[in-house]
Amino acid sequence: MEFMSDLTGSEAAAQPSLFELFAQDKLSGLFKPALSYVLATYAQRYPRYLLRLVNRQDELYALLMLLVDRHYLRRYGSSFAENIYGLKRVSTDPLRSSSKLNSRDITRSLCFLVVVPYLKGKLDLLYEKHSGGAVALLFGDQWQTPLKERLRTWIKRLFVMIYPYVHAVFHLLPLGYNLAYLLGKTRYYSPWLQYMGIEVQRMTMADYVRIMDIFQQPGLSTAQRLRLLASHISEIPLDLLNVVLPMSVFFFRFLEWWYTSDFYKSSLSIPVPLPPKSLKPSSKGTPLPDDPRQCPICHNVRTNPAIIPDSGYACCYPCLHNYVEQYGHCPVTLVPATSNAITKLYSNP
Fold first, then answer.
1. Domain total for the chain?
2. Same structural domain for residues 296 and 254?
3. How far apart are CA 321 and CA 96, in angstroms?
4. Which residues span the domain enclosing 328?
5. 187 in any annotated domain
6. What is the mean pLDDT of residues 329-345?
7. pLDDT in tens, 140-162
8. What is residue 174's three-state secondary structure?
9. Are 231 and 343 part of one and the same domain?
10. Using CA atoms, how far apart are residues 308 and 326, in angstroms rounded to an integer?
11. Domain of life, per the record (predicted)?
12. pTM of the model
């Protein structure tokens, strides 16, 4: 998706639009549901191996994104989602000779990209857990409980009271920065970037050339080039993620849409098959009586009715059983039959 970037060198073109930044944020938010879907699907087949991963999917996702984003920050100067949209992170420290990210910038970026969202998710779950019926008991008479237990209860109560304000600030503060960025009042679209002194820009043609010419560094010995090549080969699976993961997310969203669409529901509604054509009485068989309630064999009103499924004409069970045992076929249609094929009929009174 790098083609979405404007590769001109002007300062205005280097600044991405707010919609590009929203798009990469939205893309990064789709990875976790996709991972959860894959784990839940395969855990049903291999619960012995994957059930623990399902129970620890938050930690698994954080660990995977920590490894992936660390690789992309070190190699491309951008997070994984930012790299897909052709964006990069640069330092805005005027005292530094280079705007390239150093190890401190990478560590702080990983903290706000992975660790902070992980902790925020855990706090959300903790708030949902303690803001229900258990907290309603906090206002009751709990003085008979031990001091340690009362202290823990009051800490939970304080957390439930304060956390909604923390949650609001956590979401409203970036919203204010988004609005200021849209109006051109700041070059940071989030407060975390301003705190780190990092700005998100579009990658330029020089950045792409530098990445492609990584093996053309002058002054490298043959051994150094081989080590560089070996390290690059080991990182190829991570580099391929910028193609594989977006395709996986697209496939996940497609499945999500498909299973909720009318097309999928209509594919499950199989029409009822048409009943088979009834066999006509044979000219050599027993003629049917005028009264449909009568048995074709004894010509009395049927008692304990039964049929041969392949034929479909009802007779008294004793009459039909004796006839089939003697002749080996249906008395009306002459279709071959055995006594084991005779089926009794039951009707509600």
1. 2
2. no
3. 102
4. 280-349
5. yes
6. 90
7. 445 556 777 878 888 888 888 99
8. helix
9. no
10. 15
11. Eukaryota
12. 0.62
